[in-house]
Amino acid sequence: xxxxxxxxxxxxxxxxxxxxxxxxFRVRAYRNAARTIGSxxxxxxxxxxxxxxxxxxxxxxxxxxxxKIGTLLDTGRLPLLDELQREIxxxxxxxxxxxxxxxxxxxxxxxELGIDxxxxxxxxxxxxxxxxxxxxxxxxxxxxxxxxxxxxxPEHNRLLWSEADAIVQQLLAWMxxxxxxxxxEGAGSWRRGRETVGDIDVLVDGDDAxxxxxxxxxxxxxxxxxxxxxxxxxxxxxxxxxVDLRVVDEDSFGAAWQYFTGSKEHNVRLRxxxxxxxxxxxxxxxxxxxxxxxxxxxPTKGAAVAGRTEEDVYASVGLPWIPPExxxxxxxxARAERGTLPELVTLDDIRGDLHMHTTATDGEDTLGGMVxxxxxxxxxxxxxxxxxxxxxxxxxxDRKRLLKQWDEIDRLNESLAEDGRPPxxxxxxxxxxxxEKGGLDLPDEVLARADWVVASLHYGQNQPRERITGRIIxxxxxxxxxxxxxxxxxxxxxxxxxDVDIEAVIAAAARTGTCLEINANPWRLxxxxxxxxxxxxxxxxxxxxxxxxSTRGLDVMxxxxxxARRAGLEAKDIVNTHTLAQFRKLTGKA
Length: 590
What we know:
The protein is of the alpha/beta class. The chain contains 24 helices and 17 strands. It has a 7-stranded parallel beta sheet. Strands 2-4-7-6-5 form a 5-stranded mixed beta sheet, sandwiched between helices. The longest helix has 18 residues, at about 400-415. It is globular, with a radius of gyration of 26 Å.
């Protein structure tokens, strides 16, 4: 099983124990372990296979959880989870997909109203029966009714990109072990960097298709064969995802890779351009059409003019290669024709990380631990941005505790610079909260002393559009606020964005020079690619930050970079690609 599978299993167990009213510390242990495992890049199987290490070395994983991880790795199942699922009605899992409905509230609805489906819940809301249940009320009922559509949408059953990526990397590594495989690559929405992935496409160049297919179905993660043909096999993989593998000729690999990467709309436009040149493009190659030939027919292989590489396919229609992240039928073909495609930002361009948390609030690692992890990742600077005092559930910092932390950062920087040029510089930051009634949760005279201030909205997310927009713009206009964190508040597959006039927010940020964040957390990716592109167009500077709550959380930066690439962003559009001196000049903190 992948790390994502095991994290999902532990999260599921936590929900079920909480639904039953079980021990809160037991619930917390499973949730913390799920968060830790879900953020790990190295696979648990690799950790367990290393004789010099143990699963209990992982923070939050004791002997009991380590044993359960071992059972999941060996069998793909867990007796405890099977038992809990038998004891709890299946509808519970369906109802918990509604944003705002946790295990306790779902139990109340099932016990008090006999709710047995999302449709039944919707009808109970329309009948006004939900608000009569203890702990609910008219506002909660209205919010549930508003969010049921979100829970019903099949779009929210898709894997997060990071979850799909873990599966793709594992599968590609497996396929590349097959002697009959010369090359194996991922395609589809995973390759385009979509926020969520419905199924996984893999292409193989191999000299023995039958042997390649045998190797695929022997993959330990294969849960069943859906279809097997001469050149295509479909299996059910981890998390129930469908995996489609195709074996293609070497001469057609580039054309097939382009075709199966998509998007469908991009390919339609590319084919239209080809027809204007008396060419046709399909998964087999680029072919020249004879006068009177059907443009949709598959020409003979001998007529191919391109197909071995993607670069050749695009060149055949007079275009440079277009990065997969841009292939969404926007203006990418027109820009390619004009020679104005952006030079997309890369992970290597990132020099700093400007949003992270420590054990001072709700982080899992100390200040020193986060600094060491940042040095290991080659960062030149970071900002420590623990929560302000409004976020009481995270033990947010009041003025006294914040200033004490900043003094500690000053001493740490002095220590790092003792032997000359420091390996990293730690900036004094804070994530302040936008208060429901306006203002921020720490005074301006404190914020004026910070190197970097993230302003975020965590409470009052159901306020009217005008109120939420007003709170964000007020924060943008505060001269001490550097950046707006996760500006729309969405959690992919879990919670829709709050109702905000994002165009007004972008306009205000452009006017004041305040940055907007692309939060790299795979559940957030907020701003999304469309809004990030609009921000760039308006002249707003963006920041890609991990919002890391552990040292492992620093590794999600790649997800934020991928989102930025989909938005067409270049290194010059991202504040934390600058050197520290450039960054300080840009922020006025030189």
